[in-house]
Amino acid sequence: MGYDIERFVGYVNEGLLCSICRDVLEDPLQAPCEHAFCTACIHGWLVHHSNCPEDRQVIDVSVLRPLYRYMKNDLNRLQLHCKNRECGCEMVCSLESIDRHERECEYSQIPCSNAGCTVQIERRNLDGHLAVCEYRSRECPNGCGYTILSAEDTQHNCVAELRTELELLRSEMICRVEEAKHEMESRLDSQRRHMVQKESILQNEIEELKSQMSRMMSDVRSLMAAERQHRQELEQAELEKREL
């Protein structure tokens, strides 16, 4: 739907009116036949029809284009009243800046910021409402540090609240201790498995070294036996030499 034409100051060109809702164009699109529509209006129309509502030429969403620049400029320059005029806002500004104004307008209805409160109030009156809102929160005046709602003043009991807080802290501490315990056990198990694996690797290496030493000793004994044999042969050859 477009902007209510009654909000505008002065004459509004016919070409700047939506061909469907007959209000001033909002977020406009234009068909090849140059008829212009609000985006929401033409999309809703094309759900049930396949032609232009003005001249019945066949169109679909894919042929719709933004408004010509000169028309867009004319549209943006139109002057209109704030939507909160009936509430007391006297602002008149261009269509181009109306959204920005209305987002910040002191007469706009906004929700109370206190959780649980459903009151809608004018922005300019928000501070006054927050000062008396039954859902406003504050710190306990007795010093327990608990944040209470005004509606809970009569039910608030510092001792009970502190006891509840203490129980929550105790439960949280127990949970953290258990988590730390499980984490330490997990780390110890991991280290234990690592040590066992390391021990197994070292044991295998020791066995391999023993095997290598055994082979080396066997080789040494073989070499010594060969040396003795060689020496005996030399001695025998020396004897034979002497006899000759």
Secondary structure blueprint with pairings:
Elements lengths: L27 E3 L5 E3 H10 L16 E2 L2 H9 L1 E3 L10 E3 H10 L4 E3 L8 E3 L3 H7 L4 E3 L7 E3 L8 H86 L1
Antiparallel strand pairs: 1-2, 1-3, 4-5, 6-7, 8-9
Written account of the structure:
- With 244 residues, this protein is mainly alpha-helical.
- Among the domains are: 100 residues, Herpes Virus-1; 41 residues, no CATH class.
- It is 50% helix and 11% strand.
- The protein has a 3-stranded antiparallel beta sheet with strand order 2-1-3.
- Strand 6 and strand 7 form a beta hairpin.
- The chain is elongated and about 150 Å long.
- The model has no long low-confidence stretch (mean pLDDT 87).
Low-pLDDT stretches:
none
CATH architecture of the domain at 5-104: 2-Layer Sandwich
The end-to-end span amounts to 137 Å
Order of helices and strands: EEHEHEEHEEHEEH
What would you call the structural class? mainly alpha
Task: Record keyword descriptors for this entry.
11% strand; 5 helices; two-stranded antiparallel ribbon; mainly alpha; 50% helix; 244 residues; 3-stranded antiparallel beta sheet; Herpes Virus-1
Quick gist of this model?
With 244 residues, the chain is mostly helical. It has helices at 39-48, 69-77, 95-104, 126-132, 158-243; strands at residues 28-30, 36-38, 65-66, 79-81, 92-94, 109-111, 120-122, 137-139, 147-149. Among the domains are: 5-104, Zinc/RING finger domain, C3HC4 (zinc finger) (Herpes Virus-1), CATH 3.30.40; 109-149, no CATH class.
